[in-house]
């Protein structure tokens, strides 16, 4: 489901990026059982409302190569983590006020092999 939605919207997406999005979905939904990160957990909705919506700045050409960004109030990592998956050239600071979310973000970035 997630793969089909991503590939339809982003025909040039690489297999490793699709794999990271799938893994991010797994991490998100698993951790969401213990720590309330998002009310949206169905694969189609996560792909459309979290992943693709997060990528709008890329689609609109708003992020030049090697841009430095800060995602204030990132929560479960939106839009920061999807942007990093699609654009690993970005430098991204993920900022949230709740430690439980920061712990989740650190774990997710490590598992996904991403650097903020």
Structure description:
- By secondary structure, this protein is mostly helical.
- It is built from six helices and two strands.
- Strands 1-2 form a two-stranded parallel ribbon.
- Strand 1, helix 5 and strand 2 form a beta-alpha-beta unit.
- The protein is globular and about 35 Å long.
- The N and C termini lie far apart (27 Å).
- The mean pLDDT is 96.
Count helical runs.
6
Overall pLDDT metric:
96
Following the backbone from N to C, one meets helices and strands in this order, namely HHHHEHEH
Q: What spatial order of strands do you see in the largest sheet?
A: 1-2
General shape: globular
Unreliable stretches, pLDDT < 50, 5 or more residues? none
Keywords:
two-stranded parallel sheet, 9% strand, 54% helix, mainly alpha, 2 strands, 116 residues
List the helices and strands and how they pair.
Elements: H1 2-9, H2 15-32, H3 43-54, H4 56-59, E1 68-72, H5 80-86, E2 91-95, H6 99-112
Parallel strand pairs: 1-2
Summarize the structure.
With 116 residues, the chain is mainly alpha-helical. It is 54% helix and 9% strand. It starts with a helix and ends with a helix.
């Amino acid at each position: 489901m997630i793969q089909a939605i991503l590939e339809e919207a982003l025909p040039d997406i690489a297999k490793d990026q699709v794999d990271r999005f799938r893994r991010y979905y797994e991490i998100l939904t698993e951790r969401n059982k213990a720590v309330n990160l998002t009310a949206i957990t169905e694969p189609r909705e996560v792909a459309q409302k979290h992943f693709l919506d997060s990528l709008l700045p890329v689609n609109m050409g708003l992020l030049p190569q090697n841009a430095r960004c800060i995602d204030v109030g990132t929560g479960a990592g939106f839009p920061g983590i999807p942007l990093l998956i699609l654009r690993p050239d970005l430098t991204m600071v993920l900022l949230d006020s709740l430690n439980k979310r920061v712990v989740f973000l650190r774990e997710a970035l490590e598992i996904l092999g991403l650097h903020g």
